[in-house]
Amino acid sequence: MKRFLTLIILTLIVCSDLAVAQDRPAQSVLTAEWGKSAMRNTYLAPLLYEGRQIGVRYERWRTMRSYKWTNQQIIDADFADGDAENGQHSTSWSIRAMYRYAMHRDISHLLCSRCQGLTVLIGPYAGLETGFDYNLKLGSSNNPATARFVGNMGVSLASTYDYTLWGQPSKVNLQVQMPLIGYAFMPEYGASYYETFLLESGNNGHFTSLHNEQDLDVRLSTDIPIAVIPWFKRMKTIVRLGAYYHIETMDINSIVNRYSTFGISIGWTWKYLPL
């Protein structure tokens, strides 16, 4: 399994070094997110914690040298806190960080040759994700926190539709990503981190697929030029408004780890020509 994780890391390195088209601009998007969260980690407690989530996300798109593929890089970081639903005054914190590299091929002509303004992209991605959960009620115990580290390969779908808003070109974006296979580090139930790292005891590495990891990330957004406002007709700034839903569930070593978020996002998108 360690070889599989190494393969994922090498895939990320090789893909990021692939030559891109020098005459094609890159598009970047920086968004801030906030919404609701739901967390459950039966390694710490069997309770469901519901609360708030905030995050920041950066995306970068660019056409590759062959002009047939488009690459996408994503960096995402989230923080969530929640209280137990049974009113036991218990609070849990969760932090997640993720990097993904995806390559998309345009299949719009295969789906609808007459659909003007519609673009559909699909392709594989590889990514690394890490994070930890901390239970404040268990702060004085032996194991108040648990960590996770996951390497995944999956499928990525992106679609855009161009439209006009008050005479200005705009677009709607839909993105869906789902892992298919991967490798995850999760400690066994009751194993302290002293035993895990110093004594190297327990079975902490696991192959993951749809049988023990279900992960889905869905994002719907629209790009609105600020020029739609009469006072800013000369400005080229584009604002991205959207909504997102993310859920990840892992069942390893009889430990269920669930983390889901639902909220809205606002950001800024810009294009530039890299050196």
What does this structure look like?
- The chain is mainly beta.
- Helices cover 9% and strands 64% of the residues.
Short description:
The chain is mainly beta and 275 residues long. It has helices spanning 2-16, 108-111, 193-198; strands at residues 26-41, 45-63, 69-84, 91-106, 118-135, 145-165, 168-185, 205-209, 213-225, 238-252, 255-272.
Rg, nearest Å = 21 Å
Strand order of the largest sheet: 1-2-3-4-5-6-7-9-10-11
State the total count of DSSP E strands: 11
Apparent shape: globular
Low-confidence stretches: none
CA(first)-CA(last) distance = 39 Å
Q: Quickly count the helices.
A: 3
Helix content: under 10%
What would you call the structural class?
mainly beta
N-to-C series of helices and strands: HEEEEHEEEHEEEE
Strand content: over 45%
Main β-sheet, in a few words?
10 strands, antiparallel, barrel
Mean pLDDT: 83
Give the SSE map.
Blueprint: H1 2-16, E1 26-41, E2 45-63, E3 69-84, E4 91-106, H2 108-111, E5 118-135, E6 145-165, E7 168-185, H3 193-198, E8 205-209, E9 213-225, E10 238-252, E11 255-272
Antiparallel strand pairs: 1-2, 1-11, 2-3, 3-4, 4-5, 5-6, 6-7, 7-8, 7-9, 9-10, 10-11
